[in-house]
Design brief:
alpha+beta
Length: 474
């Protein structure tokens, strides 16, 4: 059954009009009243972003899609941004939504769709500069942590771990991409604004800390200082070898204990290493342009080359059905895990993070595998399909909209994009927001009603297609 037939069978028509699913048919009488907080209760407002919302709503002919965009696109600004100035320097703390902590990865993704408008709104630009300052401060405080509090004296519940976290740290889970997203934010800010004011000596200290940490986790000179073990005895969070993880052959790739909050099975997590190839190039350029630091730039370039060699040797495998594809995790000895995660980066969104073009053969083969029964996280129901996550135990099977958005952003196929747009439109359970996950064919059973990252990602997707494929939305 092709996608168009699948949509019709499910009760979805192209154009996003639901005709038969009983849960979603009930939504047709919704008046689409804005779900944004009252103006006085919004944490941060941007004139540029408000203008975008007005302009986009005029162009979106489907009232439900326009309503979702109006609610979702500004959700990060409305509800998660805490901006302040200290000694004349901006600092921006951005919580993830219903968890009062700032993930380095999430906060960058949350503001990413606002970046193109920085030169149109000085207030917005200063807020993003404050986020650079906040993330830089966090990296220096603990480069192995993934999420932080605004107050570095606040003690986390996880301080009782066998290897306790520092005050100010919510989780100390070593995820490579936490550091990579800080680089990504800085690089994009400069490309758009040409403003170097955030790139002071403190910034350079943080960037050198990032390089040092990534080098440590190549583990050429030993396992490094980080290890992880949760003392409540849950095997899901247990790492062999005294908290360092499974043995590996050192091939230049960076080791991790976690990816997207969950523990790695094999320590060489491929999507993060592919993202490192991209961001180390950007960091080398910034070291040269901002600090005239040739030594640090060359260190980035050498590490980038070592990672690429390791990936080409150990992370691209021959699948008996799909040919050459990217593995999900490897150990350098020939061991591999074939799976997928729904967040960014993952194997689906490698073109989105700038690693390769959509038509790169290994990526295309990988994508076909991802959307097949050979991927243990691929879920297909009667009228919904998508990719799930290891983050929640199964059953029940849960589709993650982050993966559906990534799927839409990494194809040129109008039918596939339309399928994703329709599914996102019709699985909000009438709330006006996108959720972290929902049970296949039963979107009323969802997790996290307030998850700002996926709302921002949805807004980013709508803006992209309105610009590049307006016929799918207008």
């Amino acid at each position: 059954m092709d996608r168009r037939e699948f949509s019709k069978k499910a009760g979805l028509l192209t154009g996003g009009v639901l005709v038969s699913n009983p849960l979603l048919a009930a939504i047709k009488d919704n008046k689409y009243v804005s779900k944004r907080p009252p103006v006085k209760e919004r944490l941060f407002t941007s004139e540029a972003i408000e203008k975008v919302i007005v302009d986009v709503k005029k162009q979106l002919k489907d009232h439900k899609t326009a309503w979702l965009f109006e609610n979702c696109f500004p959700n990060t600004l409305d509800t998660t941004v805490y901006y302040k100035e200290k000694d004349g320097k901006p600092f921006t703390y951005i919580i993830t939504g219903d968890i009062d902590a700032m993930w380095l990865r999430d906060c960058v993704c949350q503001v990413w769709p606002y970046m193109p408008y920085l030169n149109e709104d000085e207030k917005l630009k200063r807020m993003i500069a404050g986020l650079i300052n906040q993330t830089v401060k966090s990296v220096i405080w603990d480069p192995y942590a993934c999420c932080f509090y605004d107050d570095f004296e606040r003690v986390s519940f996880w301080s009782t771990e066998k290897y306790p976290v520092k005050p100010g740290v919510h989780h100390q889970k070593w995820e490579i991409n936490s550091l990579l997203f800080v680089i990504r934010l800085c690089d994009e800010y400069y490309k758009i604004t040409k403003d170097t004011s955030p790139f002071d000596d403190v910034w350079e200290e943080a960037m050198l800390t990032i390089v040092k940490t990534l080098k440590e986790q190549q583990r050429f000179d030993g396992p490094g200082p980080y290890k992880h073990y949760r003392n409540y005895g849950d095997n899901y969070e247990y790492f062999v070898n005294h908290g360092y993880g499974r043995l590996t052959r050192k091939n230049g790739m960076i080791h991790a204990t976690h990816r997207q909050d969950d523990p790695c099975i094999l320590p060489l997590y491929v999507p993060d290493n592919l993202m490192a190839i991209v961001e180390l190039k950007n960091l080398a350029k910034m070291f040269r342009e901002f600090k005239n630091n040739e030594e640090a730039a060359k260190s980035c370039e050498l590490m980038r080359k070592q990672i690429r060699n390791g990936v080409e040797k150990d992370a691209i495998i021959d699948h008996e059905v799909f040919g050459k594809i990217f593995a999900f995790e490897v150990d350098g000895y020939g061991g591999r895990i074939l799976e997928e995660e729904s967040t960014v980066p993952n194997l689906m969104n490698l073109p989105y993070i700038g690693y390769c073009d959509i038509d790169y053969p290994v990526y295309q083969n990988t994508r076909k595998w991802l959307l097949s029964e050979y991927n243990p996280q691929y879920i297909k129901g009667q009228w919904t399909e998508g990719i799930g996550s290891t983050h929640y135990p199964q059953p029940p099977q849960r589709i993650w909209p982050l993966s559906t958005i990534s799927r839409a952003l990494t194809t040129e196929d109008d039918d596939e994009i339309k399928f994703c747009l329709d599914q996102l439109r019709n699985t909000d359970a009438g709330t006006g927001f996108i959720h972290e996950s929902y049970v296949v064919d039963d979107p009323e059973h969802y997790t996290r009603s307030w998850f700002a990252w996926v709302n921002s990602f949805y807004g980013e997707m709508i803006l992209k297609f309105l610009k590049e494929k307006p016929h799918l939305l207008t």
